Amino acid sequence: MMLKAVPGVYAIINRNNRKMYIGRSKNILARCEAHAWKLKTGNHGCDELQEDFDFGNQIDFVALLEMPGASNEELKEMEQHFIYIFQTYDREHGYNKNKRPTSASIAI
C-alpha cells in the first residue's frame, strides 16, 4: 500500500549535537527519503550535515506539521516560521543556509 503524499514542514535532527535542518515539501515522506538517500550516498547538498552524518552522528527525520491542501506560499511561510523559532539559520543551532527570517508572526 502506497502512503499518501502529505505536504508540510519537516526537520532533520542530529541527535548528537541537536542541530536541525528545517525544510518543506508537497510530499514530506518522499522528501525525507531523498535526503536520507543523499546522505547515505555522500551527496547531500549541506556539507556540514553530510560531514556530521559521515562522522557517525545519528540523524532523525520528523514531520513537524502536516498541511494538507497548503499552497507553496503557505508551506514556505510555515517553513520560515520554524526556521525562526528553532534558529536553524544560526550555525550553532542548525544547518539551514538561508538568511534569518524577519519574524515568526504566523497565526497557527
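The above is record 1. Record 2 follows with the same two-line structure.
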Amino acid sequence: MIDWNATAAWIALVVTLVISLLVPLVTAIINNKHQLEVKKIDMLQSAYNDYNLKMRTVFEDYINWTSKELTYRSDLVQTASYLKSYHELYFYVPKELWDKLEYMNHVIYTDNVHAKDEFLLLVRELADILEKQEKSSPQ
C-alpha cells in the first residue's frame, strides 16, 4: 500500500525546490527587462536634451551675430560668423520659416531701414519654436 503522507511530503518538497529555483530566475529576467526599458528612456531623454541644448546655442549664436551685423559690419570674421550661424539655423527651424530667414539675410545686406523690425519679428518666432521644443516630451 502507498504511504500518501510520505508521497505528499516528497511532492511538496519537489514543488518547493522547483519554485525556489524559478522565482529568482523569473525575478532577474523581469528586472533586466525593466532596466533595459529604463536605460532606453534615459538615452532618449539624454539625446533630446542634447538636441535642445544645441538648438538653443544655434539660436543664440544667430541672434548674437545678426545683431552685430545689423549694428555694424566691422570685419570678415564677424561676417563669416554671422553666415555660419545663419546657415546652421536651417537645421533647427521648420521649412515654413526658411523664406523669412532668406528675407532677413537679404534686408541685412541691402541696408533696409526695416531690418531691425524684421529681425525682432524673427527673434519672436525663434523664441516660440524654442519654447515649444523645450516643453515637448521626447516620448
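The mean pLDDT is 92.
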